[in-house]
Design goal:
Number of helices: 9
Oligomer: single chain
Structural class: alpha/beta
Number of strands: 15
Low-confidence stretches: none
Helix content: 10-25%
Number of domains: 2
CATH architecture of the largest domain: Alpha-Beta Complex
Strand content: 15-25%
Bound molecules: zinc ion
Length: about 325
Protein backbone atom coordinates (compact mmCIF):
# COMPACT_ATOMS: atom_id res chain seq x y z
CA UNK A 1 0.00 0.00 0.00
CA UNK A 2 1.91 2.97 -1.34
CA UNK A 3 1.73 6.66 -0.39
CA UNK A 4 2.34 8.54 -3.61
CA UNK A 5 1.30 12.00 -2.39
CA UNK A 6 0.47 13.14 1.17
CA UNK A 7 -3.20 13.93 1.49
CA UNK A 8 -4.20 11.17 -0.91
CA UNK A 9 -5.30 7.60 -0.09
CA UNK A 10 -2.72 4.83 -0.22
CA UNK A 11 -2.59 2.95 -3.51
CA UNK A 12 -2.48 -0.85 -3.81
CA UNK A 13 0.43 -1.53 -6.13
CA UNK A 14 2.77 -4.33 -7.09
CA UNK A 15 6.31 -3.25 -6.26
CA UNK A 16 9.55 -5.20 -6.53
CA UNK A 17 10.53 -6.94 -3.27
CA UNK A 18 13.20 -4.93 -1.44
CA UNK A 19 16.78 -6.22 -1.47
CA UNK A 20 18.66 -6.55 1.81
CA UNK A 21 22.16 -5.13 1.81
CA UNK A 22 24.91 -6.13 4.20
CA UNK A 23 23.70 -5.80 7.79
CA UNK A 24 20.05 -5.74 6.79
CA UNK A 25 17.36 -8.37 7.21
CA UNK A 26 14.81 -9.28 4.55
CA UNK A 27 11.59 -9.78 6.47
CA UNK A 28 8.45 -11.54 5.29
CA UNK A 29 5.80 -9.47 7.04
CA UNK A 30 3.06 -11.15 9.05
CA UNK A 31 1.36 -8.00 10.25
CA UNK A 32 1.89 -4.31 10.88
CA UNK A 33 0.08 -2.33 13.55
CA UNK A 34 -1.29 1.09 12.66
CA UNK A 35 0.00 4.10 14.62
CA UNK A 36 -1.35 7.64 14.76
CA UNK A 37 2.00 8.75 13.33
CA UNK A 38 1.06 6.88 10.13
CA UNK A 39 -1.92 9.23 9.88
CA UNK A 40 0.32 12.27 10.36
CA UNK A 41 2.56 11.02 7.53
CA UNK A 42 -0.32 10.20 5.20
CA UNK A 43 -2.10 13.48 5.95
CA UNK A 44 1.08 15.50 5.30
CA UNK A 45 1.52 16.77 8.86
CA UNK A 46 5.07 15.36 8.96
CA UNK A 47 7.26 16.99 6.37
CA UNK A 48 9.49 15.54 3.70
CA UNK A 49 8.65 11.83 3.75
CA UNK A 50 10.38 9.56 1.27
CA UNK A 51 8.09 9.39 -1.78
CA UNK A 52 6.68 7.13 -2.95
CA UNK A 53 6.57 5.60 0.53
CA UNK A 54 5.37 2.44 2.22
CA UNK A 55 4.24 3.62 5.68
CA UNK A 56 4.02 1.51 8.85
CA UNK A 57 6.52 1.10 11.69
CA UNK A 58 5.17 -1.62 13.95
CA UNK A 59 6.21 -4.58 11.84
CA UNK A 60 6.33 -8.22 12.88
CA UNK A 61 7.64 -10.78 10.44
CA UNK A 62 10.02 -13.63 9.81
CA UNK A 63 13.59 -13.40 8.58
CA UNK A 64 15.12 -15.67 5.97
CA UNK A 65 16.64 -17.72 8.80
CA UNK A 66 13.20 -18.23 10.35
CA UNK A 67 13.46 -15.85 13.30
CA UNK A 68 10.49 -13.68 14.24
CA UNK A 69 11.54 -10.06 14.62
CA UNK A 70 9.92 -6.70 15.21
CA UNK A 71 10.83 -3.52 13.39
CA UNK A 72 10.24 -0.22 15.24
CA UNK A 73 10.10 3.44 14.22
CA UNK A 74 13.82 4.09 14.79
CA UNK A 75 15.41 2.53 11.73
CA UNK A 76 18.97 3.87 11.69
CA UNK A 77 21.19 6.31 13.58
CA UNK A 78 24.65 7.67 12.76
CA UNK A 79 26.37 6.38 15.91
CA UNK A 80 28.94 9.20 15.97
CA UNK A 81 27.10 12.46 16.75
CA UNK A 82 26.99 13.92 20.27
CA UNK A 83 23.44 12.62 20.77
CA UNK A 84 24.29 9.09 19.69
CA UNK A 85 27.45 9.10 21.80
CA UNK A 86 25.58 10.18 24.93
CA UNK A 87 22.90 7.49 24.92
CA UNK A 88 20.34 9.71 23.18
CA UNK A 89 20.21 8.16 19.76
CA UNK A 90 16.50 9.04 19.66
CA UNK A 91 17.64 12.64 19.05
CA UNK A 92 20.22 11.86 16.33
CA UNK A 93 20.03 14.55 13.65
CA UNK A 94 20.64 12.01 10.93
CA UNK A 95 18.27 9.33 12.26
CA UNK A 96 16.11 7.50 9.74
CA UNK A 97 12.62 6.33 10.52
CA UNK A 98 10.70 3.27 9.39
CA UNK A 99 7.62 4.10 7.35
CA UNK A 100 8.69 7.75 7.00
CA UNK A 101 12.19 8.12 5.60
CA UNK A 102 12.62 4.35 5.00
CA UNK A 103 9.96 2.08 3.48
CA UNK A 104 7.91 0.39 6.20
CA UNK A 105 5.42 -2.35 6.85
CA UNK A 106 2.21 -1.86 4.87
CA UNK A 107 3.56 -4.48 2.48
CA UNK A 108 4.44 -8.14 2.15
CA UNK A 109 8.20 -7.62 2.58
CA UNK A 110 10.47 -5.10 4.25
CA UNK A 111 14.19 -4.73 4.82
CA UNK A 112 15.50 -3.39 8.10
CA UNK A 113 18.88 -2.74 9.72
CA UNK A 114 19.47 -5.79 11.87
CA UNK A 115 20.86 -3.67 14.74
CA UNK A 116 17.53 -1.90 15.20
CA UNK A 117 15.25 -4.96 15.15
CA UNK A 118 13.99 -6.66 18.29
CA UNK A 119 13.46 -10.38 18.85
CA UNK A 120 9.78 -11.09 19.57
CA UNK A 121 9.13 -13.18 22.71
CA UNK A 122 7.81 -16.62 21.76
CA UNK A 123 4.86 -16.14 24.15
CA UNK A 124 3.38 -13.46 21.88
CA UNK A 125 1.74 -14.05 18.51
CA UNK A 126 2.70 -11.68 15.69
CA UNK A 127 -0.44 -9.59 16.00
CA UNK A 128 -0.26 -9.51 19.79
CA UNK A 129 3.30 -8.19 19.57
CA UNK A 130 2.94 -5.62 16.78
CA UNK A 131 1.34 -2.88 18.93
CA UNK A 132 4.24 -3.14 21.36
CA UNK A 133 6.70 -1.84 18.78
CA UNK A 134 5.61 1.80 18.90
CA UNK A 135 2.51 2.17 21.06
CA UNK A 136 4.31 0.05 23.65
CA UNK A 137 7.85 1.30 23.17
CA UNK A 138 7.42 5.04 22.88
CA UNK A 139 4.65 4.82 25.45
CA UNK A 140 7.07 3.11 27.81
CA UNK A 141 9.63 5.86 27.28
CA UNK A 142 6.92 8.44 28.15
CA UNK A 143 5.93 6.40 31.20
CA UNK A 144 9.54 6.33 32.42
CA UNK A 145 9.57 10.15 32.18
CA UNK A 146 6.86 10.19 34.88
CA UNK A 147 9.41 8.98 37.43
CA UNK A 148 7.83 7.76 40.63
CA UNK A 149 4.43 9.38 40.01
CA UNK A 150 1.66 7.51 41.79
CA UNK A 151 -1.39 9.06 40.13
CA UNK A 152 -0.89 9.25 36.38
CA UNK A 153 -3.35 10.77 33.90
CA UNK A 154 -3.53 9.42 30.35
CA UNK A 155 -5.03 11.91 27.91
CA UNK A 156 -6.34 9.90 24.95
CA UNK A 157 -6.98 6.24 25.65
CA UNK A 158 -5.92 4.52 22.44
CA UNK A 159 -3.30 2.04 21.42
CA UNK A 160 -0.47 3.33 23.59
CA UNK A 161 -2.50 4.09 26.73
CA UNK A 162 -4.15 0.68 26.74
CA UNK A 163 -0.72 -0.97 26.89
CA UNK A 164 0.73 1.49 29.40
CA UNK A 165 -2.28 1.18 31.69
CA UNK A 166 -1.48 -2.49 32.20
CA UNK A 167 2.16 -1.79 33.02
CA UNK A 168 1.29 1.11 35.35
CA UNK A 169 -1.33 -0.92 37.22
CA UNK A 170 1.11 -3.80 37.57
CA UNK A 171 3.57 -1.30 39.08
CA UNK A 172 0.93 -0.30 41.63
CA UNK A 173 0.28 3.13 40.09
CA UNK A 174 -3.20 4.62 39.74
CA UNK A 175 -4.33 5.34 36.19
CA UNK A 176 -6.75 8.14 35.32
CA UNK A 177 -8.09 7.88 31.77
CA UNK A 178 -9.19 11.10 30.09
CA UNK A 179 -11.08 10.56 26.82
CA UNK A 180 -13.18 12.64 24.46
CA UNK A 181 -16.29 13.79 26.31
CA UNK A 182 -18.94 11.10 26.21
CA UNK A 183 -16.67 8.40 24.74
CA UNK A 184 -18.21 5.73 26.94
CA UNK A 185 -16.59 2.87 25.00
CA UNK A 186 -13.08 4.18 25.65
CA UNK A 187 -13.91 4.92 29.30
CA UNK A 188 -15.27 1.44 29.90
CA UNK A 189 -12.28 -0.01 28.07
CA UNK A 190 -9.94 1.90 30.40
CA UNK A 191 -11.77 0.72 33.51
CA UNK A 192 -11.64 -2.87 32.25
CA UNK A 193 -7.84 -2.58 32.10
CA UNK A 194 -7.54 -1.43 35.70
CA UNK A 195 -7.91 2.35 35.52
CA UNK A 196 -9.00 3.91 38.82
CA UNK A 197 -11.09 6.54 37.05
CA UNK A 198 -12.21 7.42 33.52
CA UNK A 199 -13.96 10.53 32.27
CA UNK A 200 -13.93 13.49 29.91
CA UNK A 201 -10.74 15.38 29.10
CA UNK A 202 -11.74 18.58 30.90
CA UNK A 203 -12.62 16.96 34.19
CA UNK A 204 -10.64 17.79 37.32
CA UNK A 205 -8.57 15.19 39.15
CA UNK A 206 -5.42 15.47 41.26
CA UNK A 207 -2.49 13.94 39.40
CA UNK A 208 1.24 13.55 39.99
CA UNK A 209 1.96 13.30 36.26
CA UNK A 210 0.15 13.18 32.95
CA UNK A 211 0.93 11.75 29.52
CA UNK A 212 -0.70 13.34 26.48
CA UNK A 213 -1.27 10.74 23.75
CA UNK A 214 -3.86 12.67 21.74
CA UNK A 215 -2.80 15.27 19.17
CA UNK A 216 -4.79 18.12 20.74
CA UNK A 217 -2.58 20.86 22.23
CA UNK A 218 -5.34 22.15 24.51
CA UNK A 219 -4.98 18.94 26.51
CA UNK A 220 -1.58 20.15 27.72
CA UNK A 221 -3.30 23.00 29.53
CA UNK A 222 -6.05 20.71 30.86
CA UNK A 223 -3.38 18.38 32.23
CA UNK A 224 -1.36 21.25 33.76
CA UNK A 225 -4.45 22.26 35.75
CA UNK A 226 -4.57 18.77 37.25
CA UNK A 227 -0.97 18.05 38.21
CA UNK A 228 0.41 18.88 41.62
CA UNK A 229 3.54 20.97 42.31
CA UNK A 230 6.64 19.33 40.88
CA UNK A 231 4.54 17.26 38.48
CA UNK A 232 5.28 16.69 34.80
CA UNK A 233 3.15 16.71 31.67
CA UNK A 234 4.72 14.42 29.06
CA UNK A 235 3.72 14.90 25.41
CA UNK A 236 4.13 11.51 23.74
CA UNK A 237 2.99 12.27 20.18
CA UNK A 238 5.11 13.39 17.25
CA UNK A 239 2.60 16.02 16.16
CA UNK A 240 0.18 18.19 18.09
CA UNK A 241 -2.03 21.20 17.38
CA UNK A 242 -0.82 24.48 18.91
CA UNK A 243 -0.87 24.69 22.69
CA UNK A 244 -3.10 27.60 23.77
CA UNK A 245 -1.51 30.26 25.98
CA UNK A 246 -2.11 29.85 29.68
CA UNK A 247 -1.40 31.76 32.90
CA UNK A 248 2.10 31.26 34.30
CA UNK A 249 0.64 30.18 37.63
CA UNK A 250 -0.33 26.85 35.99
CA UNK A 251 3.36 26.16 35.42
CA UNK A 252 4.60 27.73 38.63
CA UNK A 253 5.49 25.37 41.47
CA UNK A 254 8.13 23.50 39.45
CA UNK A 255 5.61 21.89 37.17
CA UNK A 256 7.13 20.97 33.81
CA UNK A 257 6.07 20.14 30.28
CA UNK A 258 8.25 17.94 28.11
CA UNK A 259 8.04 15.95 24.92
CA UNK A 260 9.22 12.44 24.25
CA UNK A 261 10.82 11.93 20.86
CA UNK A 262 11.23 8.56 19.17
CA UNK A 263 12.90 5.74 21.09
CA UNK A 264 16.30 4.34 21.85
CA UNK A 265 17.20 0.69 21.54
CA UNK A 266 17.63 0.74 25.30
CA UNK A 267 13.93 1.63 25.67
CA UNK A 268 13.15 -1.46 23.64
CA UNK A 269 15.38 -3.70 25.73
CA UNK A 270 13.81 -2.32 28.91
CA UNK A 271 10.26 -2.89 27.68
CA UNK A 272 10.87 -6.41 26.45
CA UNK A 273 12.62 -7.25 29.71
CA UNK A 274 9.56 -5.94 31.57
CA UNK A 275 7.35 -8.14 29.40
CA UNK A 276 9.24 -11.24 30.45
CA UNK A 277 7.40 -11.01 33.78
CA UNK A 278 4.20 -9.23 32.69
CA UNK A 279 2.01 -10.41 29.87
CA UNK A 280 0.32 -7.52 28.06
CA UNK A 281 -3.07 -8.20 26.51
CA UNK A 282 -3.48 -5.99 23.47
CA UNK A 283 -6.97 -5.32 22.08
CA UNK A 284 -6.81 -5.52 18.33
CA UNK A 285 -9.05 -4.76 15.37
CA UNK A 286 -7.80 -6.58 12.29
CA UNK A 287 -7.88 -5.41 8.70
CA UNK A 288 -6.50 -7.00 5.55
CA UNK A 289 -3.44 -5.18 4.20
CA UNK A 290 -5.42 -4.03 1.14
CA UNK A 291 -7.91 -2.31 3.48
CA UNK A 292 -5.24 -0.04 4.99
CA UNK A 293 -7.14 3.10 3.98
CA UNK A 294 -10.19 1.89 5.92
CA UNK A 295 -8.03 1.26 8.97
CA UNK A 296 -6.57 4.77 8.76
CA UNK A 297 -10.02 6.32 8.36
CA UNK A 298 -11.34 4.39 11.35
CA UNK A 299 -8.40 5.60 13.45
CA UNK A 300 -8.85 9.18 12.25
CA UNK A 301 -12.53 9.04 13.29
CA UNK A 302 -11.81 7.59 16.72
CA UNK A 303 -13.50 4.29 15.89
CA UNK A 304 -10.64 1.96 16.87
CA UNK A 305 -10.71 0.52 20.40
CA UNK A 306 -7.15 -0.56 21.18
CA UNK A 307 -4.96 -1.04 18.09
CA UNK A 308 -5.70 -1.51 14.38
CA UNK A 309 -3.65 -4.31 12.80
CA UNK A 310 -3.00 -4.87 9.11
CA UNK A 311 -2.62 -8.55 8.37
CA UNK A 312 -0.72 -9.85 5.37
CA UNK A 313 -2.71 -12.91 4.38
ZN1 LIG B 1 23.67 10.36 15.59
ZN1 LIG C 1 4.21 5.02 16.08
Amino acid sequence: MVLEQPGEPLVLRDVAPPIARSGELLIKIECCAVCRTDLHVVDGELRDPKLPLIVGHQIVGTTESGNRVGVPWLGWTCGVCPYCKSGRENLCDRARFTGYTIDGGYAEYAVADERFCFPIPSTYSADEAAPLLCAGLIGYRAYRMCGGAQRIGFYGFGSSAHILAQIACDDGREVFAFTRDGDVDAQQFAMSLGASWAGGSNERQTLDAAIIFAADGSLVVSALRNIIKGGVVVCAGIHMSDIPSFPYELLWGERSIRSVANLTRDDGRALFERLSTLRIETRRTKFALRDANEALTALRNGRIVGTAILEVL
